[in-house]
Structure formats: structure tokens, C-alpha cells
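#lab-general

N.A. 3:47 PM
ok so I finally got the sequence cleaned up, no stray characters, all 139 residues accounted for. can someone with queue access submit it? mine expired

B.Y. 3:52 PM
send it over

N.A. 3:53 PM
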Amino acid sequence: MFEDLIFKGLTLSIGFGGVFAFIGWWRDFRLKLKLEQFKILQTYRDRFRNDPIISVVHAYITDGGERPANSKIFFYMGQFEEIQIMVEKGLLDKDVAHTFFGAYAYNAVSKFKLSASDDWHVLFRFIEGYEKSGRTKAM
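B.Y. 4:20 PM
back already:
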């Protein structure tokens, strides 16, 4: 009888220990995931600040002037498609992506008069998510 009690107590202790270990592991895993998302976000934010092609296209969208070459526009718009793919794969939070990059994409689509029928399907999924977030604004 006493041995059964010790065995049950030991089993419960091990069980609770496993649960607490799993909870600790899960918390650490989620933190690492958030840090990876932040690194991705930093990479794209730095690219939008420092890349010469992006700077030229962004300046045209916000300030006007001479329209950039189509290759530069395609590169610029492709950045938003990459971001949308990362959102869809769970590598980047959609609210964060829309907050940081949604207005850029939204205004560029308007400025360049792009449509989903122009093979910009991934881009327009990003725009649609941005519009649903209620953050749409013109620059």
C-alpha cells in the first residue's frame, strides 16, 4: 500500500515535471520564432531604406518626377510579393507586414495602375489583406 502511494506520487511528479518542461520549451520556441520574424522585418526595413532601386521608385511614388524603368518597378513590387509569401508561410505576422509595408504597396499599385490580371496575384493578396486591416492611406 505504501509502495503504491510512493509510486503514484512519483508518477505524478514526473508527469507534472514533463508538463512544465513542455511549457518552458513552448515559451522558448515562440520567443525564438518572434526573434526570427523580427530579423526578417529588419532585413526588409533596411532594404527599403538603403536599396537604390527601391529609393528611386519610392521617390517617384511620393514626389513625382520621371517614371522609373519597368524593371525597377517590377523589382519594387516584387518585394511586397516576397513579404506576402512570408506571411502565408507563417514567417512574418500579417499585421506587422501590413503596418510596415502596406501603405507602400497600396500607393504603388494605385500610382502604377496595376491590376491582378497583370499577373500580380500575390501582390494583390497582400493589398487585399492591407485593405481588410483598415489601415489604407495615401502617401
